[in-house]
Amino acid sequence: ALTKNMWDVFRFFQENKFAKLKLIEIISPCISVCVSDPVSGYCYGCARSDEEKQLWKDPNTSVAWKEEQISVLKARMSGFQLEAFTASYNHKINSGTSLIKEAKLMSERK
Fold first, then answer.
1. Rounded (10°) CA dihedral 89, 73, 62, 97
2. pLDDT, mean of residues 21-25
3. What's the pLDDT band for 7 if we cut at 50, 70, 90?
4. What distance in Å separates the CA atoms of residue 46 and residue 28, rounded to the nearest whole number?
5. Which helix (H) or strand (E) holds 107?
6. Are 66 and 96 in contact (CB under 8 A)?
7. H or E element: which one contains 108?
């Protein structure tokens, strides 16, 4: 049987779908650059290694790991790379599409 507290949580999720998304899913840091540096092995766009990309896709990977990973990735970046990533990732969180992917889609429509 569901307790009163469980019903309150259920109602909250029904009423606030954005909050539900934020609590359950961490958006992938991929910003559609997808080219790795041959020396470090890190993607120029998201600063992930191939192993980290695979872990991100694994359904057993925890939300806590993904949240921590975002901080780790940002710490690997600096200057314009960090600025570009932050802008594009925030755009992806808010719109569902990275800035680069959005620009590609718009140019394909022309």
1. 20
2. 59
3. low
4. 9
5. helix 99-109
6. no
7. helix 99-109
pTM attached to this predicted model:
0.74
Judged against a pLDDT cut of 90, whether residue 31 lies above it is answered with: yes
What would the 3-class secondary structure string for 3-15 be? CHHHHHHHHHHHH
DSSP 6-55: HHHHHHHHHH-HHHHHHHH-------S---B-TTT--BTTT---HHHHHH
Tokens of 69: 């990973």
Structure tokens at 58: 């694994």
Under a CB-based contact definition with an 8 Å cutoff, are residues 64 and 55 in contact? no
Residue 28's contacts (CB-CB under 8 Å, 6 or more residues apart) are: 56
Residue 25 has what pLDDT? 80
Instruction: Say if CB 45 and CB 33 are below 8 A apart.
Output: yes
